[in-house]
Design goal:
single chain, 334 residues, 24% helix, 21% strand, globular, hydro-lyase activity
């Protein structure tokens, strides 16, 4: 993409949508509709949120139905999504609950523009209440970056972006575009909940002298801050994708009284540049749509000329990361 004969500019797209709750086939159809829409608008890559298929995590009482509607990578439903990506010539980064012989994993697949899966990974460790439903990944989850039609693309789920060592390992793989897949991210959280689960912005100051500082700091709280910092540290473009929840979805999940994700909304999708700047226009948090931005991959080179955390701006003789990517099987022949 960055050769002298090829434009380095790419239109990227990020979904901010609601799945068809606990309906695998219907959500696959909606996935294909979003892929087609993004491609028609010129996008060359489309990012989906965490566990887009079939929905974000649920209570234990819905586990059987949830498992039945989780995606298998060798299924006709997965084949349909891959075919749609190929027909539209677009890279798709899909977030889904993966059903592996009845065990569930929070997974991501990077599907290239030819419909081939270049990379499939599981979330390294399920977060908090997710552990009642989802299992931990294997060593191959660390290979989270791959070459695609639009360049080197990587992906992580949700609070994996708070794992410093995991992030550093991705930085070493030199991604150009990073997909950050998240659950619904509301602007505000109830009293007593973690601000890091929201995208609440700074309070507006009445002081004229602080206007410049306010401009710099706006959106640097909670999830937005995580995405922006990741972009700067990795010198990559971040496609930050979130799910929207409506009242019918809340009623189905039975979480209307919970401390998190218990009200309609949650949309916070955006595109950030390698310098942390927001490149996209926001969609209201309770509305569905696709966020677009035109990026220039040469900006990655510009950023890395200043900061390359796994290159010239590092000291591996002093600090280094050890990695074990071996897959530890449950049953092994000795």
């Amino acid at each position: 993409m960055t050769s002298s004969s090829t434009s380095s500019k790419v239109i990227v797209a990020v979904t901010q949508a609601e799945p068809v709750w606990l309906d695998l086939d219907a959500t696959v159809d909606k996935t294909c509709a979003l892929i087609t829409e993004a491609a028609k608008n010129g996008a060359k890559i489309l990012a989906f949120p965490e566990a887009w298929i079939p929905v974000t995590q649920l209570g234990f009482e819905l586990t059987t139905r949830y498992t039945q509607n989780s995606l298998k990578l060798d299924s006709p439903q997965a084949a349909k999504i891959k075919q749609c990506a190929a027909e539209n010539g677009i890279v798709v980064v899909l977030g889904f609950s993966e059903n592996v012989n009845g065990s569930l994993y929070i997974s991501q697949a990077i599907i290239d523009a030819d419909g081939e899966v270049r990379l499939a990974r599981n979330k390294m460790k399920a977060t908090h209440m997710e552990r009642t439903i989802f299992g931990d990944s294997f060593g191959d989850c660390l290979d989270s970056v791959t070459d695609t039609e639009v360049g080197r693309v990587g992906a992580l789920n949700c609070w994996e972006h708070l794992q410093p060592l995991l992030k550093y390992h991705l930085y070493s793989q030199k991604e150009q575009i990073h997909v950050a897949s998240w659950l619904p991210v509301h602007k505000d959280v109830p009293e007593g909940a973690l601000e890091s689960m929201s995208h609440k912005g700074n309070e507006r100051s009445s002081s004229v002298q602080q206007l410049a500082l306010e401009k710099l700091m706006r959106n640097w709280v909670g999830i937005s801050a995580i995405a922006q910092v990741y972009a700067i540290e990795s010198q990559s473009f971040v496609l930050h994708s979130t799910t929207v929840i409506t009242q019918p979805g809340l009623d189905l999940m039975g979480i209307t009284r919970g401390p998190l994700m218990s009200t309609p909304g949650g949309g916070n999708s955006a595109v950030f540049g390698p310098d942390g700047s927001k490149l996209s226009v926001d969609i209201p948090e309770d509305e569905e749509g696709i966020v677009y931005a035109t990026i220039d991959l040469d900006d990655v080179l510009k950023a890395r000329a200043f900061i390359d955390t796994c290159g010239h701006y590092s000291r591996p003789d002093l600090l280094w990361l050890g990695v074990d990517k071996e897959i530890k099987r449950h049953v092994r022949d000795l």
